[in-house]
Structures are given as structure tokens and as C-alpha cells.
């Protein structure tokens, strides 16, 4: 069963809803980027890869990425579930 959001695919209503959704996502991303350095555990979780050798530094916060993905999935499921 499709939701109301996806039934109006070709119309102007769908484009308006899509732009609002994109705006909310961009605002949320901007807030996370601006306060990201102030959250002490973000990017420093156990399992995040950090390798430094001479002038080369490789850093990939994969556990932090998993946590953000998990939280994002929960939030989106709350908003889009009927």
C-alpha cells in the first residue's frame, strides 16, 4: 500500500514536498556539522580507524558512521511509518 506522499509523483505537490524534505535534511546536516566538534565522543569511538605514519594520516570513523546510520534509520522510520 502506497502512502499519500508517493501517490502524487508527477504533480507540483510532490516537488514541493521533496524540496521541503531536502531542506530539512540540509538543515539537520548543517546543525550536525556545526555542533559535531563539540560532542566529545563523535569520531573517537572504539573501532574508528586512525593510522598515522610520517606525513601520512588516514582516519575513517566507521563505528561513528554506523551509529549515525542507525540513528538516522530509526528517525526516518518514525516519520515515514504508518
Order of H and E elements: HHEEH
Strand content: 5-15%
State the helicity in percent bands. Answer: 55-70%
The description of the largest β-sheet is: 2 strands, antiparallel
Concise summary:
With 82 residues, the protein is of the alpha+beta class. The chain is 57% helix and 12% strand.
Q: Would you kindly provide a written description of the structure presented here, covering whatever features stand out?
A:
There is one protein chain. With 82 residues, the protein is an alpha+beta fold. It contains three helices and two strands. It has a two-stranded antiparallel sheet. The N and C termini lie close together (10 Å).
Layout of secondary structure:
Blueprint: H1 4-7, H2 12-35, E1 49-53, E2 56-60, H3 62-80
Antiparallel strand pairs: 1-2
Supply database-style keywords.
alpha+beta, 82 residues, elongated, 3 helices
